[in-house]
């Protein structure tokens, strides 16, 4: 049965020849629709396209892989329906080359294909994260050192004003951040110059026209309008029958004051007015009939209005316009210096990367942009290379468009055919799920199109002339109605265009598309956990008992653990496969948090302690783990044995096995010597034989490793160290051994990656790791958990994006927002630039400039908008049940405040309240102060007593169960049927157990040796059909100064002869001189190495060319019937190798045929040999099996008969038929 698409989904699938923006709500099936659109374009359209003529850009490599797999599956499904469709068959082949990729992968391919356009070496590599971080720090250090040596007064003043006095870390961070921000723009230099322009105002008029002042006035009017609305509400309360009418006059005066402020359109006048505000005092209310609640409400409203105006005055109107101009003049030299430093860093960093033939991710975009565009006065226009891509791609599809930035937009637009009037960009995304602001995404790009693209209103409306169209997908096919109703109710209250990017109205709301059937207890739960433990602590103190402090996060984790237990006991969810209700499993549950730090470890520990298996996929503190710390200390001592602390750590670890007392004995024996020398002396002269033995074993083994350090790659050194010292096995046997072993394996992989960087050797590896630690590059502990295992998963909201779970806990609602970017001494904003404080070194004064003040507000609002969207992503992961948790202090007071300021049933919370939020609770609890009966949300307040009470019940139940099990009569058979079923299961034996040890693939060389040994020496074959031992061909490593005198082995000469035979044109005739000339040309062109050319004996080659076989090959080559180096994979009957194997089983044999040619009556196979064997019979006997397999393979591949199999021996200069 086919899929039934909604009307909007069908539009997405069918519409062509236009730019399309699909605003796809969470769970709306956008990926399925996108795949269906692609399949439709490949199969249904009148002129179907090839899949490699579509460019499909996804946000992650995983998403690209999944998309490609989905499309491949859909093509195969269509092929089953239409097996004779040649176009579909072609698509099944082309899908492997389809451009389904991330933006960075696409840019990388552009740079690789057109490296000459930007003058970069073709063999460049992408730098590793740690290496690039160290390289940046190195360049910054050199740059600042150079500036200090130049002694420029402007730079010295800047470093004093904006440095921290101790080092240059703050300045370095500032330069790096501005550099990163600039790289998200098509023209980084132009953006940096715009940052300087923000401080360019010279007059009051120019100040009034500046972007900062326009934004400040905009914010002011927004807050003043809100203040006016609040006063309207207050006046309405005053006019009620039991309202405080005595306050009405004062509120009217306040309203007039606000209206007067709103009338100013000049910043200078507004500044003067703000400095001269006087609030009238409220009259005394003596009327006993007036409601106390309404009196308090009006007072709270008035306090809120006064607070709004006071905040505005402090934010923007804190000094005169003239003083603000002076501050901008003070900031200007500092901003110019900072801009110059950033531009210099960009140049030096690029030079450093180019010197090491390396690029980073931002280079991929910037280089691709240089290749694909030409900068003109009007902006960026497509280059000739871009025009080639325009011809190649019929449509450009961009997934997760809300997370694009300006440079990505410019790159993708340049390769579209929009420039020639054919609109072919398809964009899909959801601005409500734009949560990658830290990666400099620009959701406003999505919103600009959202507001300008045409929405199709009806079926009758003609669309032929519509070149830019928006389609909204509202239906959610992921979640139950109860989840969607809850999400809609909450976000109607808290998501606005100013905060969140979009008004959460009927167009943005989620509508039910999934049919789950009936269920129980499906309401969204809001668990507000009171973190006030004062009463409990006092009770413990009075009882004289000792207590361990309980943190807020531990308290929340315990509450969640209790709720998970009850869910597993009582709740049911719909099984994904059977579509029937079943009891909840741990794997149905996920706990989402804003960040891992401080949550993952605590939650995992508490849940595991409570008997609930839990796993956090990403953890911190990789370098701090015991097993990694000790191993790094061992490497430090291996590199330099005169390091006391690392040496002591190694000796006290399992490597040395020494106790603290034994270390003290060594130290006290040689007090005057450094510890490393004391250890060396005690090893030789010490009195205690046990200590001497331990030192000898540890340090002796270390000396063995030290000898191989100079020529051993670090990852190999680590493997040997782990294996030969037994440290790997020791770590595996410790508690949590699997995790520890995974961490060690991860270090080996990091060492392997290190080998590909520009740093080499053990010394540099240790410095490399120390620098990573210094600059906070924390890889997180290695992941070992199988995501399919039955555990509760703990993950960040960002990691959960695109996923779905039956039951979702969204935790940490009481955690404060991270607003450090808005509060930092220098504010950076991706759109506006850099906000500096005005610092006068001579006067020793510091004040925030108006540019900084405005940026602080913009940054704070943008951060809050991001938090709002993160919350939306978290809530929309739930399929069947959503549970929201968080701790809160001063609960009663806050609830009262929120209740007074909560909105009416249908209204969103005021912008003032939304913009002052410090935690998610500051949004959620006012929004949930009044929950209508038809909204499926249950709010519960949990105290410490409630949480402990649940735990006590669980403890008692556990003890009763334990007692029952201890008294269980094991002699009684309670369920005979179950007993029999278990016996049957545990007695089962897999019938093909032996096959597990058999090889499924052999090389021809392996089988050749096997046959030869069987036929000659009669050597026994092992049980599994393989030789007991196989001696490999060894090519000795000969030092260069001995190579001229060393006679080449058959293996090394054989490689050279085979290579020459592969390259030689057999259709031509050669003499000694022309052959030498050809070999020289091959060497010059890089097709052969010089050492290979040197070992070729011209007379050997000429002898072969003049032999009968050589002459026959020459004739075949002239007719185009000669083939060289032909790889093959052949299926042979498994019984040829494993006599006991079943009939019909195949073994794969792979190899490469040196050469074969075709004559009128069949094929001839020829194999070159350089073995030092002087008897033709012996050669034939050794290699006939190899030639037999070559013959079989050729006959299978070509369906032609192989008439001859020839060996040509260069040693005896003779051809041998086999």
In a nutshell, what does this entry contain?
The chain is an alpha/beta fold. Helices cover 51% and strands 13% of the residues.
Task: Kindly describe this structure.
It is a single chain. The protein is of the alpha/beta class. The longest helix is centred in the N-terminal third of the chain and has 35 residues, at 321-355. The chain is globular. The two termini are 60 Å apart. The relative contact order is 0.08.
Backbone shape: globular
Strand content: 5-15%
Mean of residue pLDDT? 86
Major sheet: arrangement of strands? 3-2-8-9-1-11-10
Unreliable spans: 1022-1038, 1040-1050
Per DSSP, the total helix count is 47
SSE-based structural type = alpha/beta
Measured between the Cα atoms of the first and last residue, the distance is 60 Å
Helix content: 40-55%
Gyration radius from CA atoms, angstroms = 38 Å
Please describe the biggest sheet, giving its number of strands, its sense, and whether it closes into a barrel. Answer: 7 strands, parallel
Count the E strands.
32
Task: List the SSEs and their pairings.
Blueprint (H helix, E strand, L loop, with lengths): L6 H8 L4 E6 L5 H14 L10 E5 L2 H21 L4 H9 L4 E4 H11 L11 E2 L2 H22 L2 H10 L6 H15 L4 H10 L6 H6 L1 H28 L9 H15 L4 H8 L17 H25 L4 H35 L2 E2 L1 H12 E4 L2 E4 L1 H9 L2 E4 L7 H9 L10 E5 L13 H10 L1 E2 L12 E6 L1 E2 L4 H14 L16 E2 L11 E7 L3 H10 L8 H19 L1 E3 L6 E3 L5 E5 L6 H10 L4 E3 L9 H14 L4 H9 L7 H10 L5 H11 L3 H20 L5 H12 L1 H7 L3 H19 L5 H14 L17 E5 H4 L4 E6 L9 H4 L3 E3 L3 E3 L1 E4 L4 E4 L1 H26 L2 E11 L2 H11 L9 H5 L5 H7 L9 E6 L1 H23 L9 H11 L14 E3 H13 L33 H14 L8 H13 L5 H5 L3 H8 L2 H11 L3 E12 L12 E14 L2 E8 L6 H23 L3 E8 L4 E4 L1
Parallel strand pairs: 1-9, 1-11, 2-3, 2-8, 4-5, 8-9, 10-11, 12-13, 14-25, 14-26, 17-19, 17-20, 18-19, 20-25, 27-29, 30-31
Antiparallel strand pairs: 6-7, 15-16, 21-22, 23-24, 28-29, 29-30, 31-32
